[in-house]
Structures are given as structure tokens and as C-alpha cells.
Here is the input.
Amino acid sequence: MLSYLLRRLLSLGATLVVASLVVFGVIEVLPGDPAAFMLGLNAQPEAVAALRAQMGLDDGLVARYLTWVGGLVTGDFGTSYTYRVPVAELIADRIWVSLPLALYALLLSTVIAFPIGMLAAMERGRAADYGVMGATQLGIAVPNFWFAMLLVFVFAIQLRWVGAGGFPGWEAPLAAIGALTLPAIALALPQASILARIMRSALIETLDEDYVRTARAKGLGRRAVVWRHALRNALIPVLTILGLQFSFLLAGAIIIENVFFLPGLGRLLFQAITQRDLIVVESTVMLLVFAVVAVTFLVDLAYAIVDPRLRR
Here is the structure.
């Protein structure tokens, strides 16, 4: 187990190094000068040059990369070009919107997917199974931002049950949860469709095992066999996908946060790109990459604990 853990840690470190090189390289080659953008079209060349020197943009790419990575390791994400405050403060303010949104969407996805996935497996080949598979195929095919706009039109504009966007802050918890409900549903529906199909496939495969047939032969009913014997073994691949979905929900809510005007990491990233605030873009993207890689590592570790064959 120790050797497996060390291999996974080395893989995690190598992934983060490669990701940092890709993120830094891609963002640095984007057209546009942050200093010129901040000073405007009529800025004097001397003022632009002075601002570039102040922001450290005249240093070589290697020096800037090493300075940036060294800051990330020590928790210093740099200072925003636009807001002139530490990037860590900006991320800390926004993470309390994005993280609860991801957890809320993951909870909704699980609550929706598990029952309908089990229903489809238990009713395999019948009308309920075909209905679930058709609905999940639609959920996978339709983009979540379209779901988001549809939810806004129905529940905010037509019915006026909730607001169309914005976030009141956690000082009013019920209002905050209400503001996150429609975005969470928009994020959860496609993920619930994927999870339900995986749940169905895993449970059907488990129901075909010999020990399940033996339990049925001993007189146990179908529901008892599913709950007592099949479900636990079928959850292994489902939980793996569930862990991966959390990292996707945390990193993939950029469009949804902009649709609902939520002050989360996605909106911060979008604003930083439009403002050419490179240090905010680089640090935020690397934080999201780290979240994805860390969750993947924890899922692999948990899977290896459950199934020792994977350690080889």
C-alpha cells in the first residue's frame, strides 16, 4: 500500500508541474499587454513601460514562472493587476460561493441519480427503464447553460418564485441557499444523468453475479437482494464517478456563475480574462487544477483501499 501511495503522490506532483507549465505558457502567449490595457488606448509609452516594470512584466518568462510557482507553494498567489489586492484574498472571498454551489449540486445529483438508476436496473427492459434511459440521454445531450436559462425563464420570470441572479451573502442563509438553488439544479441535471446511467449499468452487472442468483434461489425477494447484496458492490464504480464529479462541478461552473451573476471563482476568472489580469487567471486556474487532481487522488486512494487488486 505504501508503494502505491508513493507512486500516486509522484504522479500527482508531476501532473501539477505539467499543468503549471501549460497554464503559464498558454496564458502568457495570449495577445494583449496588461499594462496597456489598464492605462487605456491613449496611454503614453513611458507610462506603459513604467507600469510594466512595476508589475514585473519585463522579467524573463523563466524568472516569472519560477516566482509564480514559488509563491503558489508558499501560499502567496501574487497581487491582482486590476484590483491591487492579494489574489489569495479575491479567491478566499469567491470560494465561499463556488464551493457551496458545487456541494449543493453534488447533493442534488446524488439524490436524483441513485433512485432512478436503481429503478432502471430493477425494471430492466421495461417501460420504466426505457423512460429513464431516454430522460438521461436528454440530460446529457442538452448543455447545462441552456438548462440554466430555461430555469430562469420559468421560475424567475414567469412564476417569480426566486430571483433571476445575484447572491445576498451568507448573512442571510435561507436567501443564500435560495439564490444557489437554480444554479445548483442547472449543474446537477447533466451530472445526475451520467451518474444514473452508471448506477444502472453497475447494478445490472452485479445482479448477474452468482451470489445474487444464490440469494434469490434461497427465497429472498428482488428488493431484499438489491438492498442487502447487490447495491453495496455496485456502489464502487458509482462512488468513483461521484468523486470525479465534485471536482468537475467545482471547476466547471464558470458559465453557470455568469448566467446567474454569482460572485464565485468562475465569474472572477471570466472578469480576469477580460481585464487581462494574468496573475488572477493563472492562480485561479491552478487552484482549480489542484482541486481536480487532489480529488482524483483521494478517489484513487479510496478505490485502492476497497479493491486491493488496484494496488498492483
